[in-house]
Amino acid sequence: MKKLTFILSFFVAFSTVSFAQNSEKAKALLDEVSKKVRAYDNIEIEFSYVLENTTENIKQETRGDVALKDEKYRLNLMGTTRLFDGKKLYTIIPEDEEINISTYNPEDNTGITPSEMLTFYEDGYNYQWDIKQNVKGRKIQYIKLTPIDS
Is CATH 2.60.40.1400 the classification given to domain 17-147? Predict the structure, then answer.
């Protein structure tokens, strides 16, 4: 019984240390990429967005893209295009033949803006070193972000 307790204690201690190291490794990679990308004048990003609610058994994946230059952006997501010129936000919904124009107020912002896409992870998330995959001939290291407050 003492051996089993020791082995179990060792496994728990090892997995905690391993998780902390992987978390630090993931954060370091995110910081490195964020710093490098912020040095560009402009950038275009393709991404996938996954909404998963295990309680309601919902999993919805959507793809999108965004072009960024400083705080200005063009975001295409879920059939809607959002343009921000630094002062006004234009929301274009082709399906409804509708365009909404609003003045930007940073205090009203409740979500992640495209210009924050490369830094939002810095607060409120746990990081986990995930799989490494070959995508179109390039090795991609995935980092899993999990919100601390669900």
Answer: no
